[in-house]
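Regression test attached.
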Amino acid sequence: MSGTKIDVFLSPRDGSDPVRAILRDLQPEIDIANWRNTWKPLLEKSEEDDRAWDWGAKFMNYHYTSDEYYAIECEERTQGLMLLDTDFHRTREGQKNLVYVHFLATAPWNRKQLMKTPRFSLVGPLLLRHALVRSEELGYRFRLGLHSLPGSETWYERLRLKDYGPDETCGGLKYFEFTEEGGRAFAIGEGQK
Amino acid sequence: MISRTPSPQWYRFATELEHTIDTDLSSGPDIDLEATLRNPFATNGYRGAWFLAGALAAGALGVIYYCATHDSPFAEERWREVREKPRHAVQG
């Protein structure tokens, strides 16, 4: 959906005051360049599951009308990226429409696995919440699905997404879904702790 | 319809949730982000090594090419030419 521009706040991990950021449509000249110049050099050195993700190639290859790209920008750096598919995916039970999260990643300097003191928290949750908002806007009632990289499974389990186990059609990655109730609770901010 | 802008309640909820999950995960190494991004060789060590190896190889090829296409001052013919040149010719 073009024209997205939402004021959000990121929490610095050092405990200082929240910093204003913007969740908006991905702008390749900013975000892909940022990924290439700042994310990629750090990820290449790491063992992160997504170190081989090429956001430039993804942006070139995923251009169906149902694909939506989002980015969070703060301090003149891209802090998170997400690619959604708003069609072509259905719930495992009942075959209902849902929003499918193709890819979601936070900048390497925001990751606890990479940095002793990551810069910001809330990047991933803000992007995931926006995916749920889109689900509701499209009439999918907060239904959302995704395949998780191994290193993120714990995160999605803790968010109480329903775990459908390894999916052999997707390289054995675990498939998770937010139910209508679970998705709504997370998007509003209640009862999912 | 839900607001696109998260509410203060959502921020409290998400912060607490992330804090809870964080305590389950161990910390990573302490990377000096700014230094790493400033120095491309620190992040792309292999690329840097390949660049240096390429530059050295190009230099070596250049020396070989020069030697192959120019008369060497140490070539035997040059020495013979000097030795056999009539002395008077040198002295004028």
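Expected vs. actual: identical. Chain A touches chain B at residues 4, 6-9, 11, 18, 37-38, 41-42, 44-45, 109, 111-117, 119, 121-122, 125-126, 129-130, 133, 136-137, 154-155, 158-159, 187-190, 192-193 (CB under 8 Å).
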